[in-house]
Structure formats: C-alpha cells, structure tokens
Amino acid sequence: MHMLAFICDSVLGLVSYPPLFKDPSIPADAKKRARDILDGCKGGSVGSYSDSAGIEVIRRHAAEYIQRRDGGIPADWQNIILSAGASGGIKVLMALLRCPIDGKKPGVMIPIPQYPLYSATIAEFDMEQIGYYLDEANKWGLDIAELERSLNEARKTSAPRILVVINPGNPTGQVLSRSNIEDIIKFAQRERLVLFADEVYQDNVYETGSKFHSFKKVMMEMGEPYSKMELCSFMSCSKGYMGECGIRGGYAEIVNLCPDVRTMLLKCISAQLCPTTAGQAVLDCVVNPPQKGEPSYEQFEKEKEAVLESLRERAELVARTFNSIEGFSCNPVQGAMYAFPQIRLPPKALEAAKNEGKPADTFYAFQLLEETGICIVPGSGFGQRPGTYHFRTTILPQPEKLKEMLGLFKSFHEKFLQKYK
Question: Family, per the entry (predicted)?
C-alpha cells in the first residue's frame, strides 16, 4: 500500500465508512488516527457539524505539529482555527480588518508578483491593494526599502493594516533567509501592521543552503517587543508532498490577537458553521503523520522523501532549461512548486500583441497553448514591474513529461523568435 495514499485514503476511508475498521490490511496506526477523529466528532460521525473552529483533537494535533516544527516554542490549540484550505482562513481573518479608519479604506500590502486570491479578496472586501515589488535581481528577495516606498505611497490614500508575506513564494519560488524575515518583522512592528504569513509551502524547500523559517519562530526568538506582535500564519493540505487540493483542509494560527477580537472572530466563524469534516480529517494526517516506532513510519518517510526529492530535481531542471533558452532568464526555484521566468519579447511581437489588444505575455501564452497544448499563466495575471514580461509554470508534471514539455517549449520559442524577428 502506498503510504502517502495510506495517510489520507485509509484515514478518510475509515472515518467515512467505519466498517473498514474490521479490515486487517489497514495498519493499526491509521485505525488509531481515525478512531481519535471519530471520538472527537459529535455522535462519533463525520456527518455531524463540528465546532466552528474545527474538531478539538485535530486543533490540538495542529498545535503539537507547530511546536515540533518550531523547536519546542509553545503553540496553544485554542489559537488554531481549521478552515477550508488556507484560503478560508485567510479570508475570515482579512475580513476582521476591513473597516475604514478615519474615512480611509483599510490597506493590505501584498507582494508583486502575488497569488491572485489576495487581489480578489481585497477587491471583494472593498479594501485597498498595496503592492510591493519583490526583487527579481536578488532571487525574488524582499527589500525593506521597497516595503517603505510602497507603504508611504499608500498612506496618502489608505490606512495600511496588513502585511502579507508568501514564503516559500508563489508564483516566484523564493525562500526567505532568516535575516530577511527578521527585517520584515521589525518593519511590521515599527509600522503597526498585522503580519499574515502564508506558509503553505513550508515542506517544499529544494535549494541547498535554503531553509524554511516560520515567522512565528523567528518572532518569538527575537524577544520583546516582536514576540508580542499580532501574527496570523496559514498552512494547507493542498500543497507540500500531499497535494490533496480538492478536499479543502487548512488551518490558521493566530498569535497575540487581542482577547476581545478573538472572541469576535470566533463569533464571525460560527456563522459559517464549520469547515468540511473530510478536509479536517486530511489535515490531521498532515499535522499528525506516522511517528518513529509506528507500523507505517519508515514507509511513509521513504515515500515523502521520494516525492520531495523528485520535486527538487524538477525544480533544478526547469530553471536550468529556461536559462538555456534565448531571451529567457529564470531565478532558481528555491521552494514551492513554480518557476516565474522573465521573457524578453522582440518589438514585432509587442506590436502584434498591441494590435490584438492583449498584454504581450498573454499573446505569447495563447500562441504557446494553441501550437503545443502547453498552458502557462501570463505574468500579468500576478503583477510584474511595468515593461517586463513573465509567466508562471509549475514543476509538477512527472520528470519524463516535464522533459518532453520543456523540449516542445524550446522549439516553439525558437519558431516564435523567427516569426517576429
């Protein structure tokens, strides 16, 4: 039995269809996990509503996971809110800060390029989007001077409340260094911003020398006043080595939120009833994986490593191949699941795109799709510095498929350059 599948499928199967507990082929540790979840459900069934913030035992497991991840820094299960993917948690917490201040719209600072969930939610909540550019010349790092520029500009028209940081980055694939994170925390503290740490790719770090540091761990290790800052961090079972996107499981950890605000937050989410219990069960598999000494541990670790190692090889392959194509430049894919290469298009192509009324990167993406069947997302969908063109592509296809795709891509691009020379 495939152990990554075991983790989700066996536990999900058992909680959905308890007669499977009689099946001798299902390992004892899967049965124990499923039994703990069912014991935490009202009436012992995932068909009943859970508490609005999620099933208590799973929230406790999430807190233990965070504590292990952060080297023993305490996590309180009552600060964990389970959600429908990370998106559900991000939206409910952003909604807390959506009221105008002195007649100005509340502002949310987001990285450019960004993950479009943010721009869409900001628009939906009638908040102000404040873009800060990531530094492409420095492996998409986060420059504090750029944060300051962006904030000062925004203060003229809005009231900035939230600083969103995506680490590892989507769509840019960067992994922030510890010193960069410390500088970001100091900036947020100085400017009285609530930090939103989107850390859904925390398992996906590939580049030698890169390491994931959680914002909470760094903040706590910096001591006061930083350890007293308000922070919301997010995790999901859609990413990592799991990729269980459609089951919609995630959590938010809220740190140092004012008790009155926390009460209001719990009141708000009670109106949404609860995240799907199947999603909660799968999240439990992520935060409560097989431990040393359990029957599934060795197989699970072996398969998890194999998945992440294969992604590491693909991350290298994608960046290397794009850098070998004329007119392309691509930063190393340090983490997450995407590359975001820059492409320099010839003047004739820019002219042709203009005549069709399309951004040049969209024009390129459509031609690529029509001629090769390869689908990329144009950089204009994520935001980019004016006058530059990018696209996001994933590193997820299996290695053979990926090599084939990159080969097709290269020959398409050569023909494209010929056509618009």
Answer: Belongs to the class-I pyridoxal-phosphate-dependent aminotransferase family. Alanine aminotransferase subfamily.
